[in-house]
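Bug #77: duplicate submission created two jobs. Keeping one. Sequence:
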Amino acid sequence: MAETWDMSFLVDQSTQIMEARGNLARHFGMLQQVLIGKHLVNFINDEDRLPMMRMMGRLSQRSWTDIVTVTFRTPMTGERKLALQARPGSGPMAWWLLLSESGVDALPSIAAISSGDALATEDEFAMVAAAAAAGAGQPLDLSVFRTEVLTAVLATGMGTSATAHVDLDQRIGETLLDSAAGGVVARPQPGHYAVMHEKEVRAEQLAVQITATAEEAGVSAEQLGLSHKTMPLPKDADAEAMRDLMRDMRHSLSGRGTLPPRKSSFMDTLKGLVGRG
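Kept job's structure:
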C-alpha cells in the first residue's frame, strides 16, 4: 500500500467535504476553498456510489477497516481507479478519506467489499439524493413508484410463486437503474421504488418501461397495479428532509390520509452518537 496519499478529505456521514488537502489542482482544477461544502460521493462513478455510502454507514458503526479501490471522476483527470482508506477524523461523525493513485492493483474494489442488495435502503438513498441535488448542474426530479402486486406479496411473503415475485422485484430495480441520476435506486419498502432522474426523463416513460418489464416476466399491467408520484428534488434539502419527502410520497400513493409517526432510523441512531466518546 502507498505510504503517501495524493489527496485527503475530511468528510461527514453524507461525504460533505469539510477540509481538503493534497494535489487538488491536478485532479479538480480548483482551489481547496471551492471544494468545501461539496459532496465527495458526487465525484465517485455511479457503480461505486452505493458501496461508498455503505462504507460510510459501517464507519459510523466502527466496523470498517478495509483499504479498497474506487473509481474516482474529476474534471481534470477524468475517470480513474484510486486506492481509498478511511481514518478517524476530529469527531465521532467525521472521517478522513485518503486517496492514492498507487497500489491499486493489489486491492479489492469497494463494490466487492461492500456487498449487499443492488437497491438502496431509504437512508442510503436519502444521503445520495441530497448530495446529488446539491451538486447537480440541472434540476432533478424524484419519482416514487408503487406496484400493487409486489406491495401485497413481498409484504406478506405470500403468492403463487415467491421466486417469480422476487425476480420481478429485481427486474424493476434494474430497469430504473438504467435511468437513475446518481446511479442509485431505493426500495424503501416492499413494492415501492424511488429514483432520481433528469426532468427530460418523464416518470410516465419510466412507468411504461416498468410495465413492459413486468409483462416480459408474465405479469400483466392490470396485475402489476402500478402507480407513481413525482416531485422536484429540493436542491437545499439534507438527507433527513429527502427521506421525509420520499416517505410522504409513498404514503400518498398508498392512499392514506395522515403520516404515521416516523420510526427510529439509521440516521437517528447516528445523531445519538454525536457527543459520545
